[in-house]
Amino acid sequence: MIVAGIFTPLENVMTHILVWLHGTAGLSWAWSIVALTVIVRILLVPVAVRQIHSMQSLQLHAPEMKRIQQQWKHDRQRQQEELMKFYRENKINPYASCLPFVFQIPIFISLYYTLRHFNFQDHDPGSSVTWLHLVDITAHTAVGWGPLLLVIYVVSQLTSSYFMSTQMQSNAQRLMIMVLPVVFVPVWLRFPTGLMIYWVTTNLWTTGQGLVSRKLIPRPAPPPKRTSRTPPKETVTTNEQSSPSSSSRPVRTAAPRRVKKRRGGGRPRR
């Protein structure tokens, strides 16, 4: 009840948007949920772009972060401090990859309570709550053709998770993000089918967004690799400033060599 009270304002917003999409735009209740999902994902595009850039930066700087972890592996506190310092210096947000998912949680919970409390027949007695004449958006996913929609959800979730896992360095993170969709299948069976439509739509959006971002968003330039032969920048700058004419010809400081002249005009006798 407390959770429902916290999300009541957002639930009211969801209800008004669904009613507007159905009454003014002329969409069915199921397609209104699809349109609502697209609106939410369009609003989250700036967050998604930031997520992609942050994950690319993490991937590029992974060797340096791994070096820091190995250097301070016996001191966890110092390791975290050095990593946070490294994040600040390179303008990396390690939590940006979770932002789109975090922002969708309130939307998801509010839509859940909207579908649970909303009476579609009161707003339009003659309207249908079926989607593609297969599922009822107010019924549980386990009813009718709901399991088929659940299979589509698992496939779409695995596909969208694939684009996220390719940016991750940890194998444990990749495994977790690929296994979670299968683990939550028993939970999804008790949720309204309308929520499943919402999540399938957002997964398909994430998949398309991943394909487009790989072509349109360029990867940042990798940091320069420094070796033991690479001179420090301060030394190079000092040498250049102290000897601006180092490329010119050196001036002789020794006395000129004298040449002894021959007698008789310098021509040898025969």
Structure characterization notes:
This protein has helices spanning 2-6, 8-23, 29-43, 45-60, 62-71, 76-90, 99-117, 120-123, 146-165, 171-183, 185-188, 193-216, 233-242, and strands spanning 130-131, 135-136. Mean pLDDT is 75; it is low at 226-230 and 232-248. The relative contact order is 0.11. With 270 residues, the protein is mainly alpha-helical. Strands 1-2 form a two-stranded antiparallel ribbon. Helix 3 (29-43) runs parallel beside helix 12 and helix 7 packs antiparallel against helix 12.
What distance separates the N and C termini?
A: 128 Å
Largest sheet, order of strands side by side? 1-2
User: What percent of the residues sit in helical stretches (DSSP H or I)?
Assistant: 55-70%
Rg is: 34 Å
Largest sheet features: 2 strands, antiparallel
List the helices and strands and how they pair.
Layout: H1 2-6, H2 8-23, H3 29-43, H4 45-60, H5 62-71, H6 76-90, H7 99-117, H8 120-123, E1 130-131, E2 135-136, H9 146-165, H10 171-183, H11 185-188, H12 193-216, H13 233-242
Antiparallel strand pairs: 1-2
Helix pairs in contact: 2-3, 2-7, 3-12, 5-6, 7-12, 9-10, 9-12
Give a summary of the structure in a few sentences.
The chain has 13 helices and two strands, in the order H-H-H-H-H-H-H-H-E-E-H-H-H-H-H. The protein is mainly α. Strand 1 and strand 2 form a beta hairpin.
Main attributes of the structure:
mainly alpha; elongated; 270 residues; two-stranded antiparallel ribbon
